[in-house]
Structure formats: C-alpha cells, structure tokens
# Entry
Amino acid sequence: GGGHPGKAELQKARMRLSLQEHLWAFFQERVAIPSEEQAVARRAALDICAELRVFLHAKLPDMPLREMYLSGSLYDDLQVVTADHAQLMVPMILEKNLWSSIPGEDTIMNLPGFWLVRRENLEYFPRGSSYWDRCMVGGYLSPKSVLEVFEKLVAGSINWPAIGSVLDYIIRPVVPSETLTLEVQYETDRRLYVDFLPLLVMEDGVSLIAKPHRLAAERHENLWRQSFRVAETAKLRALDQEDAGCRCACLKVVKAVCKLNPALARLNASQLTNAILLLSEQEGDWTQEALADRFMQLLRALVGHLEAGRLPCIFSLKVNLFCELTPQEIDELGYTLYCALSDPESLLRT
Ligand code: GDP
# Structure
C-alpha cells in the first residue's frame, strides 16, 4: 500500500517462510519413509523375485527372457508415504531379424510415445520360428497377449500359498488387475504390490513396456508404451548432484501431495518428474532454501500445462504425457491445482 512500501513484500516473505517450514515438516512427517520400512519391503520383493526366477527357469527353460529384476521408486529412493509397491521387470528377448518397431506417430493412431512391434520375414521364417509368435495378433506382437501368458503362469500354475509359507508371507495374485500384480502381505499390517512389467529393449535403445494405453480402445490394444523412466530419474538425480539441489525432495513432496489428495491422484511420477525437469531448464536456484518458491512455481507450471492440455516429455518433445487423461480429468486437475495456488498449505493438510 501507498504509505508503507514493502509491507506487502514483507508479508509475502513471511508467508513464503512459513510455507517453506511447512513443506519441510510435511516432508519429514508424511513424505519420507523410515529406512527400516523400505528395507523390509525391498527384502520381500527380492524374495519373491528370487522364487519366480527359479520357477521360470525350471518350468519354462526355453522362454527367451533375460534375468528379471526389480525396479521403481522403492529402489531409487523416490517412493513416498508408504513402501507399498515395486515393479518386477521381465525383459523379453526378440530375434532382431524377426521383429521391428514402428513409432506410434507413423501409424494411423498417430500416437507418439507408443509403438507397434511388427513381425517381419514371415515368408522365410514362418509362424513358430520365434517363441513370441504365440503372442502375435494381426501381424504384431500384442502386449495384452504377452501379459496373458504371464498371467496364466503366475496366477494359474504357481503355488503361491506354498511359496508364501516358506517365505513367511501371504502372497496372492490381484484379480482383476489391469496389469499383472501380486499382493504380498509381509507383516500383519503391511502390504506390498508387485507389478509384472514385461519389457522390450529395441535395437536403438528404445525401452517398451507392456502397460496398456489407459483409454484402451480396441485399436490401441497392440500398442507398446515407451518408457523414459530410467532417463528421467537419472537426469533428475544428476542435476541435484551438480548443485546440491532440492529437485528430488520437491518431486517427493508433490508426489505425496498427489497420493494423499484423491482429486490429484491422476498425476503420476513421470508427469511430475518431467514438469520439474522442464522447470529446471528455466530456473537455476534449486537450493534447499528455495523449495517453497520452486514448489509454487511447479504448481503454476502444472496449471499452465493442464490449461494447454499438453505436457511434453523432455526426452521426446512430441510425446504428450497428458494424452491418457480425458478432457474432464484435465479440467478437474487444473481446477484443483489452480485453487491451491492461493492456499498451497491446503495441499499439506491431509
Ligand atoms: P511411483 O509409483 O509413483 O512411486 O513412481 P515410479 O517412479 O516407481 O513409477 C512407477 C510407474 O512407472 C509404474 O506405473 C510403472 O508401470 C511405470 N513405469 C514406466 N516405465 C517404467 C520402468 O522402466 N520401470 C519401472 N519400475 N516402472 C516404469
């Protein structure tokens, strides 16, 4: 106001200070997972992974797979609130001369970030030449069919009660589940969900996972999803390491906010990570003291991306990371975040 220059500024600074304090308190109390809890969850996932390896080697020695491994935020120290999920990556081996990948933008679906995997040379190498021909639908490798193969195996022919009693867990496949998920109860009140994620690593280094398009129309059924997760996570960590920054902390806070507020549950780790990476390109100060400022800037940026209906992936700008949200979901997310801009603390009261 007129006679008191700087008063508004002062008040703003005070508010910012308290948001800063609240964010770090929220981080300590709600976001961060005690290391003991993380260790026990990782242990449970590893035990299951080991059992599955033994089972698959014994039961299906000729299935062309590389060694399965665990991955996800639980292993990158990016999981928040509770240590309750992990992915079991199942890398499939494809014969180079029999399969080729076609980017989604070159298909009639025109969908960057998704790929078709086409069977080649059928005239010289007839159906059956590749183990994975059994999962071929209309000339393409079908992720849905691949998941069904694993589902039959995992839900049908593994004696989970027996394995569970040896490991002292209660294990059961989650049915129905869109992906293939095991529920592992490793203490009376602790559960871990392990997703099976079949994975193709194509010749050009493109990683494709068998995770269906969310708005699964029939014409999307053969699409493989490109995964940028390894690059995204590595980039975020590398930037933080260069300047002792708070990008990972900021990501964890906003992930927790989205996990704890049902209205924001549709925003996922990949979208949030990319929004932070995009912000990092224009904003240099990621010191711990700047957390509140960057958090607010991130919320504003997300509102902007939602208004545009578009969030590019920094590793492939033509990919729209909002392409699986309906217009209504985009509106609702945008509205919730827009309201939070004037009262960000409301996001922390959960
Ligand atoms: P969080 O689940 O929110 O803690 O985030 P994560 O970073 O662990 O991401 C897990 C999600 O990313 C799952 O929905 C996966 O299906 C998906 N995803 C995509 N690509 C990958 C990948 O290469 N590895 C893993 N673990 N998950 C991936």
Remarks:
- The longest strand covers residues 190-201.
- The chain has ten helices and 13 strands.
- The longest helix spans residues 7-31.
